[in-house]
Write a structure and sequence with these properties.
Layout: H1 12-25, H2 28-44, H3 49-64, H4 73-87, H5 92-104, H6 108-121, H7 126-138, H8 142-155, H9 162-173, H10 177-187, H11 193-205, H12 209-218
Helix pairs in contact: 1-2, 1-3, 2-3, 3-4, 3-5, 4-5, 5-6, 5-7, 6-7, 7-8, 8-9, 9-10, 9-11, 10-11, 11-12
Length: 219
Amino acid sequence: VVRGTDPAQWSPYEALVHFFAYHQRLTAGDHLAARTGLERAVGIAPRNSDCWAVLSTVYAHEHGHGFNPLPAPLERAQAAARRAVDLAPGNHLAHQAMSTVLLFRKEITTSLHEADRAIALNPLDGGCNAAMGANIAFAGDWERGCALIERAMDLNPQHPVWYRGMLSFKEYCRGNYGAAIEEALKTNAPYLFWLQVVLAAACGQLGDREAASTAVTAL
């Protein structure tokens, strides 16, 4: 409904809807629109915890994905997440956002605590299971993290393609380089830059220099 419209005109609800569409696709263009719309949203609805929470995630992705970076992304992300938690301590999106910020700040123990809190508050939210599963996996527990992502895939058969992409990282970490390539290709999302990373690394491990070079060029 909102795609292709001016984010500077979105209502807080429309900005929130667009964020979830952005989180499906994870592209720089959608990220910029999400940031514009959500910054407007918290300006006109400053007590909307959901909008603060997802704005925090958008800020964190400036750091984590390199999308549309502006100065001090993690500081802005943490301030927005803190605002979301303060406004609604029982909001799983707020704790989800805080977990992501803390992961990027390498505060692993508190990041995992926030991830567990987010899941406990809304265990049937597939998006939360996947996002927190990714945090848990990148913190080092690939088995539990990817189990949560697979649960998210079961909860939502029409899940975002990046869920499966996380499984390619798990196979790479296990040394199953062929399986890592297979999972990355199944994702069928060549625009996700981090899939090109795992393809380049896995192909390199298998000695396929041509395929590795192709992935590096795509990256």
